[in-house]
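Look over this entry.
=====
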Amino acid sequence: MQTVLGAGGPIADELVKELHRNHTKDIRLVSRKPAQINDTDELVAADLTDAEATGRAVAGSQIAYLTVGLPLNSELWERQFPVIMRNVIDACAAHGTKLVFFDNTYMYPGTSAPQTESTAFAPNGRKGRVRGELATMLLEAVRADRVQGLIGRAPEFYGPGSTKSYTNSLVFDRIRAGKRPFVPVNAHTERSLIWTPAASRALALLGNTADAYGQTWHLPTDPNRQTYAQLIEIAGEVTGRKIGYTVLPMLAFRLGRHLVEPLDEMYELLDRYRDDNIFDSSKFAARFPDFQVTTYREGVTRILTGERLIESEPM
């Protein structure tokens, strides 16, 4: 049994498909209101802030994948995320279940220095501090031999369907709707973005690789990083039209954060858009050289047309 804790999001849904396709048909989906992805999925409704419910959800699982997402609200994150992580670690320890944690980069410094698995945490806001706390909790439990665990860490998403990110909502969703895209802060800094189905494929692979445990892994991204200006140029080539864009400067966010709550919640993350964002996934590439990374051109093409480029089909 492999169990997905926090089923229903774009990462979790693609993870469930990948597990079913290449690893196991014995899959349990856990959330407040889980829904089947595959006909054989077992559904368990549970609130992971409840320790007993979490224990019941994990029982009988060889591997549990923690993919829970919460709305971008600092107070909610501070109140719920540490409780969820503590409950999941305790449940996995009690049932001898391996734990795979899907993580992000909010705890990293917002500078142009390359980010590797050994980059020291230096969060500049409340959400970053929470993410750093969660990773530290798991790593300490692993070092203490309470659980076998690993972290799969991803930079900002971009992807098909219901993928939620600033890049999708401000850039590609607007292009797809025939609107002028908005670029946060700077159109000419290099971006590290991860294609959501590729992130899920990689997470499933790590979870089913015995020697991946006890480590943090940067999930695979296209090393040929692009700027927003270049990504929008690719979008123009894909759609056959010239696409302009509007840059939203820091001042716009600084003023808007006092009026619009989502902008206030986004503000601590803006450093990553001001300078190059260099997320290094070479460790994963070295360990899994046959893993096919989705290129930015294929990703943009898939988002805007639904077509897949034959030369970069996933293996």
Summary: The chain has a mean pLDDT of 93. Residues 2-156+193-218 form a domain with the Rossmann fold fold (CATH 3.40.50.720). The chain is about 40% helix and 15% strand.
